[in-house]
Amino acid sequence: MLLEIRHVTQYHYERPVRESLMELWMQPQKTARQRLVSFELDLNPAAQVFSYADSFGNAVYHFDVPQPHDNLTIIARSAVETESPGERPDYLDMGEWDRLRSEFVRGECFDFLRPHGFVKTTEALQTFINEHDLDALKRRDPLTAVRTLSETIYSAFEYQPGVTDADSPIDLTLSAGRGVCQDFAHIMLAVCRGWGVPARYVSGYLFTDREAGDRSDPDATHAWVEVFLPSLRWVGFDPTNNMMAGERHVAVAVGRDYGDVTPSRGVYKGDAESQLAVGVSVRRARAALAEPEFLRMARPAFAGGRRRPDTALREELHQQQQQQQQQQQ
Fold first, then answer.
1. Which domains does the chain have, with CATH numbers?
2. Which alpha helices (DSSP H) does 57-200 contain, by range?
3. Can you tell me the distance from the alpha carbon of 210 to that of 49, in angstroms, rounded to the nearest whole number?
4. Stated pTM of the model
5. How far apart are CA 320 and CA 268, in angstroms?
6. Which segments show compositional bias classed as Basic and acidic residues (predicted)?
7. Which of 137, 94, 104, 110 lies closest to 198, judged by CA?
8. Is the pLDDT at 184 greater than 90, yes or no?
9. Model confidence over 117-153: pLDDT tens digits?
10. What's the farthest any 2 CA atoms get from each other in the chain?
């Protein structure tokens, strides 16, 4: 499936700020089932862009706008060709639990087995586990257990933007019975890790199909979960839409939780409030695209190194992490 993605982020400031520094997690991954045809960033004001790979292998772009400005617009355009993961077994043998306990798996997936940030066991989560008898699922094979967990989360919670925000703990969703993709992914991650199943947060996009029963917001980024099963490697589950990740899912970045893969975050210098607006469009491409796999900039040039803010001005830095909640939205 060939998809075109347009992701627009706009920051508006009540008065001009002196400087902005930003990091972006917006480039789709390059994997065996996902080919990045093209990726392009358009910035206004124009800025020099740098890049690096973070500790999880995600592509990160960063830039500095060193002159006064009262708005900042970031437009990321991608073309991605995806493939179906192929046939998966309906279940695995019970020996998969022993393989999950192996030293190799525990070492290889160390970061995705521990509580972190939004992903942790709370009293509210334990109550949810007990009410739905989720620990009984460990008597089944891991693939069946995780699939049933995803179905349970889908059935237990209503999809409703606006109930939670990007910084909301899982307890808010657990008490309200409502939330968005980010919340459902965090709950599923916490349960899987509690079972000893490595699980990671995936930030990306979904080509929404209402006829297929999707309830995700088509104009927002998306989030789901990947679990590591030794016999299958990483397998994606989408608890928001009650399905396994497939060719309509476009993965951008993976991490321990949302905090590792925020689409954009940064700081600015100046005494001003900021407002954020985000828009996402995912559609099927009309014709085959043949653009090279590199970042194309309309105006900025590339260079090495990264500029950091003056220590003397640290007290004036205002954090502007993009609270583009993954509805994740």
1. 2-82+261-319 (2.60.40.2250), 95-260 (3.10.620.30)
2. 95-100, 103-108, 123-131, 142-156, 170-176, 181-195
3. 37
4. 0.87
5. 7
6. 307-318
7. 110
8. yes
9. 999 999 999 999 999 999 999 999 999 999 999 999 9
10. 62
